């Protein structure tokens, strides 16, 4: 999104860091150098947190600290994700987190539904919590693809995310 240029506002900086977090929370880690560059762009965009300052200041010899610092940055900005220890509970918690990111407007609905479907529903299978998503994807394939305007499709995907939020309980703390 902002590769090479600094975000103009703190809100844009948070959006860039959130985009990294969307795949990060499922173990698809960004390279340390990219994390430090994103942190530097965020600082230039006016965003400041204690860990963001440390992350941006890492030199190459300290890149092993980047994952922990990025985790702290996510927590400091309020969108950290801490799944339950149980693998399957963690998968459902991840689906819930992505659904909340969709509903909150921080994750593109098509991208978010794809993340949930491919990274959670395919592995988890059919269950009461994921049925709205699985049924919608099956209907989409059976009907030969997208029907409706982009706005209608986005609204349908947002509705699926809302249904997932209602069906998947928040993880116990």
Concise overview:
The chain is 63% helix and 0% strand. With 173 residues, it is an all-alpha fold. Helix 5 (87-103) crosses helix 8 (150-167).
Notable traits:
single chain, 173 residues, mainly alpha, 8 helices, 0% strand
Which secondary structure elements does this structure contain, and how are they paired or packed?
Layout: H1 10-24, H2 32-44, H3 50-56, H4 66-76, H5 87-103, H6 109-124, H7 131-142, H8 150-167
Helix content class? 55-70%
Strands, count: 0
What structural category characterises the helix and strand content?
A: mainly alpha
Alpha plus pi helix count = 8
What's the shape?
globular
Q: What distance lies between the first and last C-alpha atoms, to the nearest angstrom?
A: 33 Å
Succession of helices and strands: HHHHHHHH
Largest sheet: none
Round the Cα radius of gyration to an integer and report it.
17 Å
Low-pLDDT segments: none
Give the amount of beta strand, in percent.
under 5%
Average pLDDT reading? 88
Task: Describe the protein in words.
The structure is a single chain. This protein is mostly helical. 63% of the residues lie in helices and 0% in strands. The chain has 8 helices and no strands. It has helices spanning 10-24, 32-44, 50-56, 66-76, 87-103, 109-124, 131-142, 150-167. The longest helix is centred in the last third of the chain and has 18 residues, at 150-167. The two termini are 33 Å apart.
């Amino acid at each position: 999104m902002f590769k090479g240029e600094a975000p103009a506002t703190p809100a844009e900086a948070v959006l860039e860091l959130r985009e990294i977090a969307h795949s990060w929370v499922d173990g698809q880690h960004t390279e340390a150098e990219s994390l430090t560059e994103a942190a530097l762009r965020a600082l230039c965009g006016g965003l400041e947190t204690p860990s963001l300052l440390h992350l941006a200041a890492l030199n190459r010899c300290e890149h092993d600290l980047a994952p922990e610092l990025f985790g702290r940055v996510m927590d400091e900005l309020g969108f950290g994700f801490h799944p339950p220890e149980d693998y399957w509970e963690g998968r459902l918690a991840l689906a819930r987190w992505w659904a909340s990111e969709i509903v909150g407007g921080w994750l593109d609905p098509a991208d978010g539904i794809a993340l949930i479907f491919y990274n959670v529903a395919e592995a988890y299978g059919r269950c009461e919590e994921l049925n709205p998503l699985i049924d919608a994807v099956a209907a989409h394939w059976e009907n030969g693809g997208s029907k409706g305007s982009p706005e209608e499709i986005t609204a349908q995907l947002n509705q699926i995310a809302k249904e997932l939020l209602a069906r998947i309980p928040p993880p116990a703390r």
